[in-house]
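Subgroup meeting minutes
Present: P.N., E.W., G.H.
Scribe: E.W.

1. P.N. recapped why we're keeping a running log of single-chain structure predictions: easier to compare across weeks, and new members can see raw inputs and outputs side by side.
2. G.H. added today's entry (185 aa).
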Amino acid sequence: MNEKKKKNEIWEWIKALLIALGLAAIIRVFFFTPIVVDGESMLPTLDNLDHMIVNKIGYTIGEPDRFDIIVFHAEEQKDFIKRVIGLPGDEIEYKDDVLFINGKAYEEPYLVENKAEVPGSLLTENFTLEDKIDRKTVPAGTVFVLGDNRRESKDSRVIGVVPIDEIIGSTKVVFWPLNGIRIVK
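Output recorded in log:
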């Protein structure tokens, strides 16, 4: 009887472990996944090698919002992390380091630190959407993205607009390194 009880207990542990692994796989595939920041294109908001959690369900039920930080499939079978600047139908222009969307000036508080490092010169070069993608507005089903480190970012100014169906999800939570745990905006 003792031997049978021992086998039952082992079987219960195996079942519990398999269920836990199955749930972890489902959560990772459908809901949340980790990503590591690779490079300096989002400085100072995100540091190289920051570990983040990507929310994969937000855009299955909704659309990206302006200024969301998103993760998307890019060229070279690599995922990029950038900030959404333009939504479908938007006209985008940078003039004298000021972002204009549909003719309205927008503040970008996440760039204040970077702008302070380049006094007297532009952080973001002057351009219109037409200069970069040969279109007056962001096409339907796409977004225009930029890195926060405007001088060192491979973003929509180079790769073009990002199809919304290539977006993996949004990210706001840095969970590693431990001394850098934070929510980013």
